[in-house]
Amino acid sequence: MMDLSAYRDIFIEELNDQLERMDQSLLELERSPSVGLVQTLFRAAHTIKGSASTMDFRELSDLTHEVEFALEWVRDKKPEINSVLIDTLFRSLDAMKVLRDQYVSGQPFQNFKSVVAEIQSLIQKPVVMEPVKAPELKKSEWLVAQEAVDAGHQLFSIRITLETTCMMKAARYFIVRQRIEEQGGKIIAASLADQVASGEDDDRYANFVIVAAIAGDPQGIQAELSNESDVQIVVVEEYVKDVAVVHNEPVAVQEKAEAGGVEPSTEKSLSDDRNKGTQPTVRVNVERLDHLMNLVGELLIDQTSLADLSGEGARNAPSPLMQSIGGVSDHMGRVIKELQEGVMKTRMLPIDQLFSRFPRLVRDLSQKLGKELELIIQGGETELDRMIIEELSDPLIHLIRNSADHGIESREIREQQGKPTKGRITLTSFHEENHVVIRYSDDGKGIDGERIKASALSKGLITEEQASHLTEQEAVHLIFEPGFSTASSVSEVSGRGVGMDIVRSQIGRLNGIIDIDTEPGRGTTFTIRLPLTLAIIKGLLVKVSGRVLIIPMYNIAEIVRIDPEDIQTIQGQLAILNHGRIVPFHWLRDKLNYPPTNRESKTIPLIIVRSVDKTAAFAVDEIMGNQEVVIKSLGSYLGAMNHLSGATILGNGRVAVILDASYLVSH
User: Active-site residue among 28, 30, 66, 68?
Assistant: First the structure.
């Protein structure tokens, strides 16, 4: 038998590309149905099925075959493109992603028999009416639900579709309720179809939704009901209807019909747009790019050494030979600079590869929370180091979830305030000097600094004295403190503040800076500034207690000199006034436990360092200048050295450590 392991990485890369294409095409199909988009989806599914079959990945091949057949049915029969069809295709796509993840991790494959049954049911009997909606909880039902949640249960909606051949659907409905209770579920509410085409009352029970509080894993109930006679489809999802008491994926579906079927359209499909003007490309292993970057770094170190030697020789023994060596050194520097930029560009990716994941997230949140949400993406072509892009996903997801759940008001409140009923989230990126700026904004309720301050006080995060000295802007930045939240109940996507400390820590690890601009009633904007790359940086060389240290330039807000009497004690801590703002003051030698040295100068060189949302001033002995340095990992030999982000080799061959500005400022 042929060994397919050599093709595994190529298969996974191609699979990721095709799944991403299907995700984007489905979103576009929901917004604007066209034959071209259906054809794009069909081609992607066909490609996945063929590749999976070749790799003997039968689980994915069989599921994708059903999806392909469904898309062929849509293309040929041209049914109405409504929320039932779109949600079924999205659930199928999610199942394909789960199988992919299990294939990559080597886990046992999940059985998606219910998804296949849902696809087959859709094809065999085209839907002409929307399914039953999950029930809205009445006040009495909500009280029961709240008690169950307080006791550690979770609310789930259990959507059941019975076989068309079921003779006594009402009886089967009550048997299903009994099975749920036998499995430990507490039934809160249920909903049936209001009316059916047949006029038979029993047919109202063919499709129903039960809301139940479940203490353990809901998969046990799903498995039990799937084996029940006359039950065709079982979908168990978290119940989120004006309730903020759920905890994990998957996403609940709010049915919303989209009128209009698939008609021939002059619009080009997404694949046509993506292929427009494409250039020949070659897939290169990331490790090879990293190796090239390391070699360029070594060249840069050698060139710096040569330049230092050339300069020293020209000063001590000027001669035509030394001038020639200096000329060669300069030319070598220019070539290495171009080589460095070329290799760095190969590591760059358009940030759209990250942004393109978020329309689906916003769509799911919109349905889960019952809010109309719109995501606008600008500047997707902005390029950023792939390592930074990979680390940015979680912080941006936190921002989107917090905006959707707590930042943007409900439709009713927005109407009362004269706002558009559809909440808007805007994600923009662009280059600014040697940074990439990502601007995230929403047009929601904004952040109330006084409410933030009150919440921080009640949780013991600040004292009364500290609160009295906080400005409005400083109060708003308290949302980044660990454990802070203004949400009144626990949820997966709770109020602005949950997980915001994670946003700060991850942006800090990337040597980034984050600003907040908010106006109550109008919305909030987060501005994130990040370095283009983390491999080669421009650093400021300073001397402290006879040692040469490096501080990344993109963390330096200002370099000043102060008199010793400018240092003040405020609330028991050393500080200085910088442009009218109080900035904490530290001797860098004390931070690093270095011995003090005698200062000859009367003034003190001061570095104003900024990281994420905090600023601090550090006094050094001498400022030596700046230069580009290659960051080398310290490895694990030195143990936990949180205040260092790496080290580099200087032109004279000596090692200099690179300080982690984020750690210094926050500790």
Answer: 68
